[in-house]
Amino acid sequence: MSNAIKKQIMASSQSDFELTGEAAGEQVFRFSEAFLGFEGHFPGRPVLPAIVQLLIAQCVAEAVEKKSMQLLAVPKAKFLSVLGPDQEIVVRCRKIASKQNQRFDISLHSGDVMAASIVMEGGFGNDRE
Predict the structure, then answer these.
(1) For the chain, what is the radius of gyration of the CA atoms?
(2) What is the CB-side half-sphere exposure of residue 108 using CA atoms within 13 A?
(3) Is the pTM of this model over 0.85?
(4) Most buried in the list 16, 24, 69, 98, measured by CB within 10 Å?
(5) How far apart are CA 111 and CA 76, in angstroms?
(6) CATH number among 3.10.129.10, 3.40.50.300, 2.60.120.10, 3.30.930.10, domain 3-127
């Protein structure tokens, strides 16, 4: 994951990661129009790209495990609503049972609307700093 965009994602956090259950938690983000992820996507009408939404989901999965994650697979990703600048985005993540890699069910919400639903698998390395 690009360190520059990861740093900007974490700098856009409006709250610390909060555990909401065993191997589950949530974090709130708000991205200004100056956020690197909006660059060129799209001029005059910034939209948070799907790849950035996946990176946000990965950051929250890493917070659940307290370790850096190597993304291995995204078996499911549905992007249901457009996310733009200055929207409060609540990211909910829970670890789900898997026979092989660590698997996470992650959703992004803006207000009462689910904007994305993602299942991702990853391998974990060292502790997060």
Answers:
(1) 14
(2) 30
(3) yes
(4) 69
(5) 23
(6) 3.10.129.10
